[in-house]
Amino acid sequence: MHLKNLTLTNFKNYEQADLEFSPRINCFVGNNGVGKTNILDAVHYLSLTKSFFNAIDSISIRHGEDYFIINGIFTDRDEEDQIFCAFQRQKQKVMKKNGKEYQKLSDHVGKFPVVMISPADSALISEGSEDRRRFLNKIISQYDPEYLDSVLKYNKALQQRNRLLKEFKETGQFDKDALMIWNVQLVKYGEYVYRERKNLVNELIPVFQEYYSLISSEKESVRLSYRSHLSEGDFAETLVSTMSKDCFLEYTTTGIHKDDLILEMNGYPVKSLGSQGQQKSYLVALKLAKFDYINRRSGITPVLLLDDIFDKFDAERVEQIIRLVGSSRFGQIFITDTHQSRLKEILSSHDTDYKLFMISDNTIGEIFHNGIKVNETK
Fold this sequence. Notes:
The chain is built from 11 helices and 16 strands. By secondary structure, it is an alpha+beta fold. Strand 1 and strand 2 (14-20) form a beta hairpin. It has helices at residues 36-48, 123-126, 129-141, 145-171, 176-216, 235-241, 243-249, 270-273, 276-298, 315-325, 340-348; strands at 2-11, 14-20, 25-29, 67-76, 79-88, 94-97, 100-101, 114-117, 222-227, 260-265, 268-269, 303-307, 333-337, 354-360, 363-369, 372-373.
């Protein structure tokens, strides 16, 4: 599967853009702030119905406009699917596949998987457990619609249970039967989510460690593990045993909403031990393991989006990553970078189809196709 073309209207800094892509490697070079990342984010919208960076769609509308439109055609062998994504202020977002609108945006997730590797991934290390749970959710939801539905229903039940706990504190009246209704819902959906997360992490570990060794030349020992209250005992019994504590604190203290992914290097948290380069290698390896897992589970090779990932890497490690993702193990790849000469030199030494685009002043010019200079396009 690959993205054949992309058309943007009023999307971020682009008033209008029309692009034709290579089925293998597509590079976008230019100074910081010219809009390279916005192209990758548009691809993310077409796949997962939303921005990789912002939860608020209105932020993606070009300044001074009222709407944005993203159109793209995904090709898989001889079949083509046209995907349409549009958002207008004060209205609902619209997603269409071959002209037919989705009733639920979640129904589109997983049909055209992508994996984004970005400097924003540093939040997986530096921020709280919510970012790491979101990371797990994004992986599983791209091949398992039931999982995404279970997460949504669990969160709704959690909100209702927490609301009851606040009411108990405010009124001084406790209703165990009312609380048990939501306990049943939490257990039903939470146990499914727990099993899928546990299976995912167990399968990610060896692939993640393999990728880290390839990128870092085995200089450090890395570890990945999954922590959950549900691994400590029966979830239903735990919810009952913590009722008094929950009533006092006015929120649910146990469950999958407290899960965490533990990231370690040489036996210590990577957050405290790893250098910037080591942390970045850790994240790249983790995301490549995600790519591999989605590929195996869904049977669809995801599009790989590499956004400015070469900062803090030396030239040797950059070439290692390019050589790795340029292998037959991967499919279509989008890369942004500020160093045109570096990318051109590395790509020209590999026998793979590629396009290199230069971006500046809201103009996207195709510069090289397999090393041959071509005319600039607006």
